[in-house]
Amino acid sequence: MNSSISERIVFYRINHKNYQANFIGEYIKKERIKQGLKQELVCKGICSVSYYSRIENNKVNPSETYINKIFKKLNKPVPKCFKNEYDDESNKISKQFLDALEFRNQVQIEKVFGEVLNNDNLNKKLYEFIYKVYHKELFDIDKLLKYLYAEQNFMTNEELLLFLEYLGLYCIIKRDYIMASKYLKCAITLQNHMRIERPSLFYRYAYALSRLNQLHLSIVYSWKASEIYQRNHNLYYYVCTRALMAEGLAKFLPECSISIFHECLQISNCTNLQELEYRIKLLLAQTYKRLNNYEQSEKILKELSLQLFEDNSFNFNIHLELIDLYLKLNDYETARNYYDYIKKKDWQHPYRDFYLKYYHYSFNKPQSTNEIIKFYYTTIIPFFQNSFNQEMLVKSYLELATIYENNGYYQESLEQYKKAWEYLNRDRNINIV
Length: 433
What we know:
Strand content: under 5%
Distance between the termini: 41 Å
CATH superfamily of the domain at 3-84: lambda repressor-like DNA-binding domains
CATH topology of the domain at 3-84: 434 Repressor (Amino-terminal Domain)
Number of strands: 0
Shape: elongated
Helix content: over 70%
Radius of gyration: 27 Å
Largest sheet: none
Structural class: mainly alpha
CATH class of the domain at 3-84: Mainly Alpha
């Protein structure tokens, strides 16, 4: 898939008010060929073959009467994007479904999704895609995604907006944050043109940006989302967006970040959002560690480590933070014990292999300088580049520079220092302590 296609479609719609007229012929031709019909058969009793051919080639704008008759011949309803009338019942069902997703009401989601599937005026494949992405049911989604991607031209603005947002969420789930940010930015452009605001779109865009280390923008969009969620009394996502904003602020204003995290913890305690509470505590522990408040960080992490969560990836992250904390405290024995512990556990984590290799190297550094340098070039540096972790990348360049320097390779050492300086010069808030 290519995000530039979606971008072109969105910008075309923004610049052409009657964009539907330029696609109706293409849609009719596509449908006729799919059904294996000749032009003569479709236009019989409606218009001449030459006029019909001009319709298919977008040479004329057919009247509503012609459009209705042609689609009747094709045994297909006229797609919503080619007519200006909207079915109130369909709009009501669509709104109910999206509201149920926003408020995480699983009973309502299932009930209204059944109504969606029984409504011929709604784009069923689109809502099926939304349903599957929301529930992370991605094992058989490729065929559906390809179909919808090819149908973007023929969606209404509302449908296209939803498709781009959930395509962005699909990319986030797949950890392709670059593509996610492109689709979500495209959706925000369309949303601005439509003069509406979907907080979920702002939140997902902010999340993708945070994973790309574009923290300033992430803070702006998470703040926008939190304002709307607060007005809508959606406490769950209000806390999510505030926590995401605090996560971004931790790099620039850690004290302010801690204050927001405590506010989020208060809300989650009062509203029984326990799952969120634990995740916020982990972020809070990371922020305390950034402030060198190792005592508070250790207290929170040890409290979390005593519980066994269903999410094994979360368990793994807690123990990674403990290993890193004790290495900072030069308590290598305790750090090694936690490393041995997670090595034995069958906890699934997207970066499990890397971190096991990384800490194995930390505790068992090879004697050969060439082996150490090779490990940095083949494992450590590529990982932190691909995960946009600039702090660890700078730290790795500095460590490699020191290794070169200690072994008399001064030119190579200087090159690594230059790379580190380039990142530090671009972002003065990088913490390499």
